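Duplicate of #3305? Posting structure anyway:
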C-alpha cells in the first residue's frame, strides 16, 4: 500500500475523510471514526505505518501466485507471510491485528462477491459456477463417490444471455457443487480466492463430514496435492466362504443362454467382504515423507469416513466384478470373431478399468480399477492370452 510510504500525508488524508463524514452526515466522533478506513493509523507512529505498508505490498506482489499457484506455492507464501509478521510485529499486537483485519476484509469480501457472481468484462460473467465448470470435474475429488454437477438457474441463464427474451412463468432453480476451503478462510484469509484452496465437492464431504474440522497440509491431504492418488490403494477382504446365492442365480441364467462354460469361474465369488483403504509407500520418496503421507491418508479416511462410504457401495463393486469375469479376454475374443465390425465399441463397453487421468470423471473409479487389477488382472489375463494365441495359431 503506497500511501503508507508517506505516513504524515496519509494521516492528513484520514483526518480529512473523518471531518467530512462527521460534518456531512452529522455523526458523533465515534460513529464517524468507524466509517473511515484505517482511522486507527492516527494512533500509530511513522515507522509502524511504513512497516504495515511493506507487509501489505509483500502480499500484493504475490497476488498472481495466490490466485493460481499450486499447493507448494501457497505454502511458500504462507510461510513468507508468517515469517514477515513475526519479524516486524512479534510484540506489536495492534499492528499485527491491523494487517490481519485488512487482509481478512479484502479477501473474504472478494470471495463473498465472487459467490454472488458479477460481470468482470462485457458479457463475461464470473462466479463460483463458472469457476467450477472451468475445473471440468464431474465427481467429488474428496470421495470419488458422488457426482457433482452444475445446472444454471433461469435467473443465471438470463444474466448470461441478457439479450434473450425473458423467461415466462415460475423461474427454475439451479444447482452446483459445494466449494470447500481446504484451509479455512477465517484462519487463512489470504487463500480465500486461491484456486488450489477452493475444492469443488459434494455436500456430504463438505458440510456433513468435514464441516468445521480445520484441515491443514501437515495432517490431511488435499485432492489437488501432486501424486496423492499414488499414496493410497483400495483392497477387498473376504470375511465369509459361503457362495453368494444371488450370484449363483445370475450364473445359472447366463448358462441357460448357452454362454461358454468359462463363465463358471465366477462361482465362489462372495458378497461377504469389506473394502479397506491403505496407505501405499511411494518409491523414491524418503521414509520420513512416506510417514507424513501415511498420517495424511489415515486422517482423510477417518474424518471423511471414506471406508464407510465405500462399504456402502459393495453391491456395486460385486456387480462390476461379476461383469469383468463374464466379459473376460477370451469372451471378448469370441465377440471379435463373431462381430468384427462391432468389436471396437464392445471393447469400450466391456472395459471396467478407468485410466488414472479420468478418475475425476467416473464415480468410484479408483476403487473399482484397483480392485479389478489386483484380483482379476494378472492370473486371468495371462491364462487367457495363452489360449487366445493358440486359437489364433489354429486359424492361420
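Output from current build:
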Amino acid at each position: 500500500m503506497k500511501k503508507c510510504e508517506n505516513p504524515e500525508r496519509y494521516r492528513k488524508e484520514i483526518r480529512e475523510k473523518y471531518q467530512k463524514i462527521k460534518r456531512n452526515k452529522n455523526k458523533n466522533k465515534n460513529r464517524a471514526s468507524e466509517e473511515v478506513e484505517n482511522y486507527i493509523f492516527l494512533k500509530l507512529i511513522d515507522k509502524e505505518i511504513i512497516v504495515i505498508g511493506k507487509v501489505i505490498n509483500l502480499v500484493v506482489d504475490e497476488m498472481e501466485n495466490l490466485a493460481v499457484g499450486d499447493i507448494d506455492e501457497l505454502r511458500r507464501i504462507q510461510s513468507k507471510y508468517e515469517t514477515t509478521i513475526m519479524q516486524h510485529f512479534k510484540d506489536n499486537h495492534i499492528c499485527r491485528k491491523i494487517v490481519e483485519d485488512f487482509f481478512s476484509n479484502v479477501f473474504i469480501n472478494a470471495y463473498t462477491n465472487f459467490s454472488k457472481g458479477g460481470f468482470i468484462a462485457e458479457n463475461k460473467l464470473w462466479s463460483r459456477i463458472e469457476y467450477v465448470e472451468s475445473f471440468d470435474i464431474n465427481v467429488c475429488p474428496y470421495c470419488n463417490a458422488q457426482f457433482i454437477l452444475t445446472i444454471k438457474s433461469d435467473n443465471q441463464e438470463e444474466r448470461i444471455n441478457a439479450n434473450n427474451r425473458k423467461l415466462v412463468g415460475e423461474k427454475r432453480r439451479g444447482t452446483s457443487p459445494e466449494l470447500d476451503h481446504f484451509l479455512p478462510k477465517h484462519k487463512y484469509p489470504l487463500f480465500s480466492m486461491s484456486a488450489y484452496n477452493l475444492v469443488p465437492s459434494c455436500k456430504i464431504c463438505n458440510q456433513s463430514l468435514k464441516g468445521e474440522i480445520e484441515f491443514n497440509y501437515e495432517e490431511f491431504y488435499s485432492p489437488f496435492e501432486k501424486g496423492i492418488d499414488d499414496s493410497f490403494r483400495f483392497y477387498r477382504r473376504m470375511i465369509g466362504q459361503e457362495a453368494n446365492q444371488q450370484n449363483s442365480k445370475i450364473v445359472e441364467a447366463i448358462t441357460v443362454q448357452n454362454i461358454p462354460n468359462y463363465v463358471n469361474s465366477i462361482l465362489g465369488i462372495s458378497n461377504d467382504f469389506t473394502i479397506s483403504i491403505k496407505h501405499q509407500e511411494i518409491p523414491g520418496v524418503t521414509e520420513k515423507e512416506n510417514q507424513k503421507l501415511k498420517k495424511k491418508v489415515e486422517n482423510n479416511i477417518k474424518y471423511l469416513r471414506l471406508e464407510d462410504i465405500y462399504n456402502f457401495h459393495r453391491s456395486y463393486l460385486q456387480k462390476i466384478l461379476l461383469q469383468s469375469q463374464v466379459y473376460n479376454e477370451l469372451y471378448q475374443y469370441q465377440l471379435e470373431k463373431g462381430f468384427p465390425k462391432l468389436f471396437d465399441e464392445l471393447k469400450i463397453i466391456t472395459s471396467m478399468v478407468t485410466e488414472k487421468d479420468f478418475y475425476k470423471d467416473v464415480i468410484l473409479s479408483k476403487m473399482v480399477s484397483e480392485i479389478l487389477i489386483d484380483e482379476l488382472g494378472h492370473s486371468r489375463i495371462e491364462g487367457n492370452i495363452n489360449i487366445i494365441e493358440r486359437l489364433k495359431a489354429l486359424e492361420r
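Confirmed duplicate; merging threads. The chain has two domains: 44-210, 228-395. Residues 44-210 form one domain.
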